[in-house]
Amino acid sequence: MLKVTDAVVRYGAITALHGVSFEVEQGEIVTLLGANGAGKSTTLRMLSGLHAAQAGRVEFEGRDITKVKAHELSSLGIAHVPEGRRIFPQMTVEENLEMGAFTRKGSYGEDLERMYGMFPILKDRRKQLGGNLSGGEQQMLAIGRALMSQPRLILLDEPSMGLAPMIIDQIFRIIAEIRDGGTTVLVVEQNASQALRLADRGYVLENGRVVLADDADRLLVDPRVRAVYLGEEVSTEEPASSEIPSGE
Amino acid sequence: MSTEMRVHLRRWLSFFAMAALIAIMTGPSGSNNAPVQGLTQSFAQPYSYFGLFRAQRWMIFFTFALVALGLQTLWRRSGGGVRARTAVLRQGFEAPGRRRATVLSAVVVVALVALFIPHLISNPGIQSGIVEQVLAYVILALGLNVVVGWAGLLDLGYVGFYAIGAYVTAWMTGRLPIAAPFHHPVSSFAAIPVAIVFTMLAGVILGAPTLRLRGDYLAIVTLGFGEIILVFSNNLTNVTGGSQGTNPYIPSFTFRIGGLKYLFGNVGYYFLVAGFVVVTIVLFRLLEHSRVGRAWTAIREDEVAAESIGINPLKYKVMAFAIGASVSGFAGAVTASQIGVVYPSTFSLYFSVNVLTLVIFGGMGSIVGVIFGSILVQGIAVYLRFYPPSGYQASDLYMYLGALLIMMMIYRPAGLIPSRRRRREIYQAEDGIGHEGDVLLGEQS
């Protein structure tokens, strides 16, 4: 469904992505993992059109979207939940959701009800201002707003950032629900263990390169992943190395 | 003393201090042309210091301050005071079923007052002053409100479009050194649509490449644009007529119905331009709640989020810019035909700042606020022009406006009658909520 081939992104003299390739198949949850500065967010910025790729190719449903601008994505069927939630703070919850349907023609009342079914707390707060919601509620609102455009693929940037563990569980359950509802999900996360339990497949980024790619449950038990991203001592297998794993 | 009273007292004291400062700076008979005259005088001749208390400028500033504070108090929606005392009254007027009737009756009252103004004022100078200094500025401020208040763009070159509108009218009616299009001058009324189209195009041409810039950068570009237009109108003598202005007189609007001919005089212009004001209000009210209006709100609140839901920020910013530009050009065309002459000296930066002041003073983003703010400030300006206190010069006005603006920004940053959303944005920005960068303009840095 989504295919990235040898994507290179530079910020001035600094190269953030050195030819990243990965794929997302229809109906699955794929997660991009990596430490700070590994290139996760850059990858998502590139996909969402906020930063252009200098080389490489991005395809969505067989169509070249490398040069597509951020505001054109939503009509192609891709929704982007930016990092830091970024809801409209002075609009009410309902207005925020309605804005999500901006590019759609026709009525969206049914979808609004569907969102309220999915996020009952938003229904209770429908007349409240987005800025007055808690972090978790804002994240739900941001996801709900993205879903209002009826996307086939949704890009989530660090959905667990700054949230309490209980809320994170809730958000991740919702992400699974979204996949079960037929929307493909690409999620960028720092919270590796939880992201891998949720996802079908995962890619590990390091210094702007994909160093590991596998099914999520296999990555979850991979000693290199465990050592570096899950912060566990792996004494039973090979001596745990504090070095960065190299997958090249 | 209650906290609220202390706040009020402090507010009044600071207004008082501001007035005293202006008085001391300019002295009893000074003006803004000799800003420190009062200070030097009071050192050289200490006794003349007492003369300050006779100074008229205290009075002028307090006229501004009083009206502004009075209106503000009346408008207060929260707290005790007026709100508690008028509770019964308001319950009657604001009951859900009657809201419409209340708004309607308010509109009728305003319309009736507007209807009788030209009959109550017989001085033709004041009549035309009201048209060109008040009504035209209401239209101008409403147009700038789209750009500044709704789209959140700081436009300091607003006067440039006004100038283009005025010169297009002079050109179409054959009053410029260059020939009218097709050597066939038309009436000044027929020139209006052409002026609107030209200024809208100018808005798109200036906006498309520059609206990628944010905040301060855009302000500087538009500032430069306004200055370029000013230099052109002054020095491009063989096109614009230079600093002498256009010649001969641009004809006033005239209507011929059958054999009857009606030449618009002061009263005619008053009603015509008042009609234009009403049309502008109706159009902008529709615009505010349209899809476009919501897109502007989204861009102002969070541009990245707006893009992520499929809004093209550049497109909607250019749209706002072009709408503002065409309204400015429209006002330029109407006033050109009313005054009859187009002078480059009108098109200084002061003009843009003046209109911006009205928008900020009245309440950015609020149609009602901008209208009231414009009528109030421009009304006082016209009054001072025709009934000047001793020692007052026309250019002193900006001194008082500046002082008033400072006080407004401190005590009522959202303006006289703010739009509800805009007020929330400003207070939330102060609390650090949301992605608001610049408090004044809602631009992200």
Account of the 3D structure:
- The complex is a heterodimer of chains A (248) and B (445).
- With 248 residues, chain A is an alpha/beta fold.
- Chain A has one domain: P-loop containing nucleotide triphosphate hydrolases (Rossmann fold).
- Chain A has ten helices and ten strands.
- Chain A is globular.
- Mean pLDDT of chain A is 87; it is low at 234-243.
- The model of chain B is unreliable at 77-82 and 434-445 (pLDDT under 50).
- Chain B has two domains: 1-22 and 42-73, no CATH class; 131-393, Orthogonal Bundle (ABC transporter involved in vitamin B12 uptake, BtuC), CATH 1.10.3470.
- Chain B is globular, with a radius of gyration of 23 Å.
- Chain B is mostly helical and 445 residues long.
- A two-stranded antiparallel sheet of chain B has the order 1-2.
- The two termini of chain B are 42 Å apart.
- Chain B has helices at 3-26, 37-44, 56-75, 81-85, 87-94, 99-120, 124-150, 158-172, 188-210, 215-235, 237-240, 266-288, 291-301, 303-308, 313-339, 349-362, 367-386, 397-411, 420-430, and strands at residues 254-257, 260-263.
- Chain B contains 19 helices and two strands.
- The interface between A and B is medium-sized, with 30 and 25 residues.
- Beta-strand proportion of chain B: under 5%
Could you report the average pLDDT of chain B, rounded to the nearest whole number? 79
Discrete helix count of chain B: 19
Radius of gyration of chain A: 18 Å
How many beta-strand segments of chain A? 10
* Fold-level CATH name of chain A: Rossmann fold
CATH superfamily of chain A: P-loop containing nucleotide triphosphate hydrolases
- CATH architectural group of the largest domain in chain B: Orthogonal Bundle
CA gyration radius of chain B, whole angstroms: 23 Å
Q: Strand-and-helix sequence of chain A, N→C?
A: EEEHEEHEHHHHEHEHEEHH
Widest beta sheet: strand line-up of chain B = 1-2
Q: Which word captures the global form of chain B? A: globular
Major beta sheet, strand line-up of chain A: 6-7-8-3-9-10
The CATH class assignment of chain A is Alpha Beta
| CATH fold type of the largest domain in chain B | ABC transporter involved in vitamin B12 uptake, BtuC
Shape of chain A: globular
Structural class of chain A: alpha/beta
